[in-house]
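Practice record 12: protein with adenosine monophosphate.
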Amino acid sequence: MSDLHHAVSLLKEGKLIGLPTETVYGLAADALNSKAMASIFHLKGRPTFNPLIIHTHSLEALKEDIIITPTARLLAEHFWPGPLTLVLRRSPHCRIDPLASAGLPTLAVRIPRHPLALELLKLINRPLAAPSANLSNHLSPTTKDMVLKDFKDLYVLEGGPAVVGVESTIIGLEGDVPTLYRPGGIALEAIEAVIGTIAQPGKGIHAPGMQKKHYAPNHSLRLNAVSKNEGELLLGFGDTKNADLNLSPTGDLTEAASNLFYMLHLLDARPSKGIAVSPIPMIGLGLAMNDRLKRGAVRD
Ligand code: AMP
Ligand code: MG
C-alpha cells in the first residue's frame, strides 16, 4: 500500500496522522468524526475552547457546511491553495463536528498548497481538521523529525521541510468587516491589495484561542536584541554580528519565516542562558514572525 493510501485508511478509522503542509506539519483527522476531533484535543493537550482549522481540496466541497460570501470567493481565487485561513459562518446543516469549531457558530477553513496534502485531501474527499502537530504550547514543527519529538508513535507522511514555516494568516469574514485574527504566511499587505483595508486586532477584537503565551521554546527569548549577553545564543537576521544562527543573512523575510521555528528548535536543544533574537522589521511576513516571537517570549 502506498503511504498516501495508508494515511487514508488510518484517517477513515478515525485515527490521527502527521500531515506535511507548506506552513507547518499538521496533526490531521477526519473533521466529520467527533471521536477523532476529541482525540486531537486530547493528544495535543489543547484547551477545547481553541477551535481547529479545517483543510479541504476545494471550496465547493464545503458548500453545505459554510456560508460562502463573495469576499471569501475572491480571496480563495487569489490565495488558495496557500497559507490563508478564512473564518466563515457555519451553515445550519454543517456536517463538521461542533468541537472543531469549539462550539462557535463559525468555521475556519483553508486549502493547503503542499502537493502531498492536496493529494491526500482529494483522495479521501473529506474535510480534515489539522492543528499544528505539536503539544500545546510547544514549537510548531516544520519537519517530520520535529513532529516525532512530540508524538513518537504517530504515523507521519514525509513531505520535506515546510517551505513557508509559519502558520497561515487568519482573516475573519463572518462579520461586517474583514478582520485579521492572526498574521501568518501571507502578508497582510497582499490581502489588503485584493479586498481593501482589514481591521486589525486591538481593543474589543478577540480571536478565540489567541492566548498571550504560545509557541514557546524551553529557553527564554529576548527580542529585538542588538547584541548577545554572556551565555546567550543569538538568532540573527540580516547583517547581525556574532549570530549563532541567522534567519536570513540577506534580510529576506520569506527565507527568515521558513527558518524561524526550525532554528529556534535547534538553538533550544543547545545549552544556554537564553536565546536573543535580532530585530525583525514589521512588514510582510515580519508581522507573523514578531507575533510568534512575542508569544514565545511570554513566561508563566
Ligand atoms: P492552529 O493552532 O494553527 O491550528 O490555528 C487555529 C487557530 O485558528 C485558533 O487558535 C484560532 O485562533 C483560529 N480559529 C480557528 N477557528 C476559528 C473560528 N471559528 N473563529 C476564529 N478563529 C478561529
Ligand atoms: Mg499550533
